[in-house]
Design a protein that fits this description.
Layout lengths: L17 E3 H7 L4 H10 L7 E3 L2 E5 H14 L11
Helix pairs in contact: 1-2
């Protein structure tokens, strides 16, 4: 009997649960200085996690924000889904 460490399904690659604050800011079209200022102030448009000395953004919340702004075409920034 053999065991596999790969998850079942068509793809063996999994999406990350979190991405860097810089990557999230780029997806939102924000400058580096703006994203760090917003994160420090607690006003980044999505939930931001502080992990050690780094910031991370949950992909689920970022996707929710991007899907919402794409559906209605507006640039309003609703609170992101927790997660």
């Amino acid at each position: 009997m053999t065991t596999s460490t790969t998850p079942p399904g068509p793809s063996t690659q999994q999406e990350p649960e979190v991405i860097s604050l810089l990557a999230a800011g780029r997806l939102l079209g924000l400058s580096r200085s703006t994203i760090y200022r917003l994160a420090k102030a607690g006003t980044f448009p999505c939930r931001v996690l502080r992990i050690g000395g780094r910031y991370a953004v949950p992909v689920r919340g970022l996707r929710t924000l991007l899907d919402h702004t794409n559906q209605d075409g507006s640039q309003s920034r609703p609170a992101c889904e927790e997660g």
